[in-house]
Amino acid sequence: MKQTVWHNLKLCATGDARHTLDDAAIAVEGGRIAWLGAAPNLPAQYALWPREDLRGAWVTPGLVDCHTHLVYAGQRADEFAQRLAGASYEEIARQGGGIVSTVRATRAASEEALFAQSAARLEPLIAEGVTAVEIKSGYGLELDAERKMLRVARQLGERYPVTVRTTFLGAHALPPEFAGRADDYVEEVCDRMLPALADEGLVDAVDVFCERIGFTLAQSERVFEVAVRRNLPVKMHAEQLSNGGGAALAARYGALSSDHLEFLDEAGVAAMKAAGSVAVLLPGAYYFIRETQLPPLDLLRRYEVPIAISTDSNPGTSPVTSLLLMMNMATTLFRMTVPEVLLGVTRNAARAFGDAEHHGTLAAGRPADFAVWRVQSLAELAYWIGRPLCERVVRGGATVFQRSLTA
Ligand code: NIG
Ligand code: FE
């Protein structure tokens, strides 16, 4: 089994920037962390292992992007132009654009084309230290096309050095062939699509877009019932454009997270706290649709609801492939602190991701998945805009990404 001691590094093992070590070492054996701590305390048994010198760089857990729609075909720059001319996201959706236009492109794409286009969005995330990414379906909205999306998501996890968890989002929008028959479509989702895709092992969690232009509380609940019967964790796009009570409903189903949440009220926050749901905030979508309603940060803090930050990478509201940029936006737009945003892409994101056992925190016995940052202070991760800061990504103890420097 390969053994390595990574040394000459500054360590933020828990994702909590208030607890760090200035001169740390990490002993790795067979892809797992055997020991980590202050370098002078390195136990004698590791002293003769081969060494890797990180030259004073910072090490954090591999980042977790816990809410993405990064598998889709095409793009919606034309809609962006319409919005610049004054149309709102909701108006465009009601006129048959929006999600449904990406559905047309995704249905038409071959699996290979879908993989290639999606891989191009995954690569920049990996180059920024992301070692785990959640990927939703929801641009197929019929069994075969949803299957194609989820298969591509699985393949991305097999062919790239990143852990992928899939989320079935069949209840993302009403497909045109079901116009005026939303309940019939929900029945299709519940009775046919979700059972088939879950049986094929393609579904790790279930999401619903609960909104005026999405699905009602009652329809969302029908989907959650099926998920829970199959022991699949749920999550929800909730209170993004209006306050519909989705987060409280999701909490009743023990949701991993509720996401977006700009219009969340105190009752929703309290319900999330009671259920242990993570609040996933998506500053890219807030920014890109020029939302002005801020998510209720003070309430989330007061109730101590864990907060995660994610890209929401998607063609309509967040054409984003940088989690570091989301950290920056969460500080500037949402007034979150540096420790909050760092926890938001590590420990708290891993909870929302549904696997905090293996992701988001570094400790003995856990996978050696970490990011190496050429910065002097962790605050720089939220400070620089557009600067490549990640020098190396280590996954299972092996370097899977290294920035090549030429001078
Ligand atoms: O997270 N709100 C619903 N779903 C996506 C947007 C999808 C799209 O516009 O293509 C979101 O914002
Ligand atoms: Fe989303």
UniProtKB/TrEMBL annotation:
Main subcellular location: cytoplasm
Location of this chain's protein in the cell: Cytoplasm
Enzyme Commission number(s) from the entry: 3.5.2.7
SUPFAM superfamilies: Composite domain of metallo-dependent hydrolases, Metallo-dependent hydrolases
Job of this protein: Catalyzes the hydrolytic cleavage of the carbon-nitrogen bond in imidazolone-5-propanoate to yield N-formimidoyl-L-glutamate. It is the third step in the universal histidine degradation pathway.
Metal-binding among keywords: yes
Organism: Paraburkholderia denitrificans
Pfam families: Amidohydro_1
Residues annotated to bind N-formimidoyl-L-glutamate: 139, 314, 316
Enzyme class: hydrolase
Protein family (similarity comment): Belongs to the metallo-dependent hydrolases superfamily. HutI family.
Positions of the Amidohydrolase-related domain: 58-384
GO molecular function: imidazolonepropionase activity
Catalytic reaction annotation: 4-imidazolone-5-propanoate + H2O = N-formimidoyl-L-glutamate
Name by which UniProt lists this protein: Imidazolonepropionase
Residue positions binding Zn(2+): 67, 69, 237, 312
Bound cofactor: record note: Binds 1 zinc or iron ion per subunit.
Domain of life: Bacteria
Pathway: Amino-acid degradation; L-histidine degradation into L-glutamate; N-formimidoyl-L-glutamate from L-histidine: step 3/3
Binding site for Fe(3+): 67, 69, 237, 312
Residue numbers binding 4-imidazolone-5-propanoate: 76, 139, 172, 240, 317
Keywords: Cytoplasm, Histidine metabolism, Hydrolase, Iron, Metal-binding, Zinc
